[in-house]
Amino acid sequence: MRRSISVAAVFGAIVLTACSSDEGGVGDVFEGDDVTVDMFDNRYQYTEIRIPVGGSVNWLGAGRNQHNSVAVDGSWSTGDEFGSLEQLEGDEAVITYDQPGEYAFFCTFHGNDEGAGMVGLLIVGDV
Ligand SMILES: [Cu+2]
């Protein structure tokens, strides 16, 4: 193991070790062009999502509770796309991301903008 491993990588490894499940445990990473992210009760299917510039994410309600996904920096929100911050099971909000960047995101019902609870990180492009 490299000595220069980042704190984030160590944290991710710990989470992956602690929680492995068949349908995407906490800490799972997705990398690809377009992705559907289930918003479970009360966590995201992936907590790290990597897409290219122009890639899209389908934020899909997949729980009994209402969920959403909002960028900490305010640059995007499923509420803007869906018309409501209350997505129930089967409700979709497809957002295409044209601006490269690292976007921390959270569910306004079950997480917060300080990284607690139902949160994740979206990385668009090579940043
Ligand atoms: Cu939620």
Task: Explain what this protein looks like in three dimensions.
Helices cover 13% and strands 35% of the residues. It is mainly β. The protein has one domain: Cupredoxins -  blue copper proteins (Immunoglobulin-like). It has a 5-stranded mixed sheet, with no helix packed on it. Strands 2-4-6 form a 3-stranded mixed sheet. A hairpin with a 5-residue loop joins β7 (101-111) and β8 (117-124). Copper (II) ion binds next to β7.
Which residues form runs of ≥5 with pLDDT under 50?
1-24
Number of helices: 2
First-to-last CA distance? 24 Å
The CATH class assignment is Mainly Beta
Proportion of residues in helical segments: 10-25%
CATH names the topology as Immunoglobulin-like
Structural class: mainly beta
- Numbering strands along the chain, what is their spatial order in the largest sheet? 1-3-8-7-5
Average pLDDT number = 86
Count of strand segments:
8
Q: Largest sheet, described in full?
A: 5 strands, mixed
Give the domain tally. Answer: 1
- Rounded Rg: 14 Å
Catalogue the ligands.
copper (II) ion
Beta content comes to: 35-45%
- CATH superfamily grouping: Cupredoxins -  blue copper proteins
Order of helices and strands: HEEEEEHEEE
Gross geometry: globular
CATH architecture: Sandwich
